[in-house]
Amino acid sequence: MEFIKPGTNFDFVGKRNIAIGISIVLIIISILSVVMHKGLNFGIDFAGGTIIQVKFTKTTPADAIRKTFQNIKIDDAIIQEIGQNEVIVRTNQPMTKELQAKVEEAMNGQFGTGNFEIRRIEFVGPKVGKDLTTKAILAIVFAWIGMLIYIAWRFEFRYGLGAIIALIHDTIIVIGALSLLNKEFTLTIVAALLTVIGYSINDTIVVFDRIRENRKKDLKKSLADIINASVNETLSRTILTAVTVFLVLLALFFVGGPVIHDFSFALLVGLVIGTYSSIFIASPIVLYFENLQISRMKRKK
Q1: In the chain, helix, strand, coil percent, each to 5?
Q2: By mean pLDDT, which of 37-46, 186-195, 289-298 is the weakest?
Q3: How far apart are CA 298 and CA 301, in angstroms?
Q4: Which tens digit of pLDDT belongs to each residue from 74-101?
Q5: 166 with 135, same domain?
Q6: Phi/psi at 196 (nearest 5 deg)?
Q7: DSSP assigned state of 83
Q8: pLDDT value at position 4?
């Protein structure tokens, strides 16, 4: 199936400065959002503490829930709604069996037996949270390094640099979108980021492959023209893949439930940004390095 007619020649390379300008603005907004929020909203996986997920039979005000926890001397409870009549209560206090019994007793007294259900209680210590944070960062960095080595070996080093810069670009903007909406940064989000990296690099390699093929066919043609032709030739495939995945993620986002809501949101943002970077960021960066190399050669002469 082809959405784009053969012979179509959109000037993607000619719009690279506009695209790079948009990317710089998005990256600045992302960084400012993280700074203004004083860091990411780390979930229990990274920050440590206790999470209590409670499902009520009817709408219950957050103030009433908070007051219940204050009555048993848990003053730092943060209430977050995650669905209809369902909340997550976060606290830094370790959840012992004694404290768990106090929570159940206090809630029975406040809301009545049978009017709520404690669905899960999870506790992560600060050392475990710190260890998970380190491993999450390393997982993303090692993914970047692995991609760089593979693409540099399969193509050329400048192609690897272009791909990695595009992946860093995608990761920062997805994290920025999560920060803007103050969504929790959990291990699930790390999995989403790694998925975005995989999807984006696949899209980029398809374009790079076509660039390499077209360059072998016509060595006299400029790299800018070859990149334009290659992106246009793969555009139907890019649109078809992106739209198909987008529709699936959209369904997960709206009907998948609160458990995978943030995960599907991160993937939706990553899909859009990853497709955009494959067209407007990765290949133009390769062109930039080529032009830089040509300029150096001219200076030497």
Answers
A1: 70, 10, 20
A2: 289-298
A3: 5
A4: 887 878 777 788 888 888 777 778 878 8
A5: yes
A6: -60, -45
A7: E
A8: 63
CATH number for the domain harbouring residue 153: 1.20.1640.10
Enumerate residues 6+ apart whose C-beta is below 8 A from 145. Answer: none
Entry pTM: 0.80
Give the whole-angstrom CA distance, residue 86 versus residue 265: 20
Rounded Cα distance between 230 and 207, Å, is 6
Residue 271 has pLDDT above 70, yes or no: yes
- Indicate whether 4 belongs to any domain: no
**By C-alpha distance, which of 164, 233, 175 is closest to 32?**
175
Residue 138 CA neighbour count, 13 Å, CB half: 6
89 lies in which domain range?
49-124
Nearest-angstrom CA–CA distance, 82 and 89: 10
Q: Which of 101, 124, 147 is the last residue of a domain?
A: 124
* Phi, psi (deg, nearest 5) at residue 118: -85, 105
For 70-201, strand residue ranges (E) read 78-83, 86-91, 116-124, 184-185
Helix (H, G, I), strand (E, B) or coil at 38: coil
| Contact (Cβ atoms closer than 8 angstroms) between residue 30 and residue 165 | no
Q: Which range, of 132-136, 182-186, 228-232, 283-287, averages the lowest pLDDT?
A: 132-136
Question: What residue type is assigned to position 92 of the chain?
Answer: N
3-class secondary-structure state, position 257: coil
- Residues 108 and 171 grouped into a single domain: no
CA atoms of 21 and 29, how far apart (whole Å) = 12
Question: Is 6 domain-assigned?
Answer: no
Task: Find, among 162, 108, 189, the residue nearest to 284 by Cα.
Answer: 162
Asked whether residue 182 is assigned to any structural domain, the reply reads yes
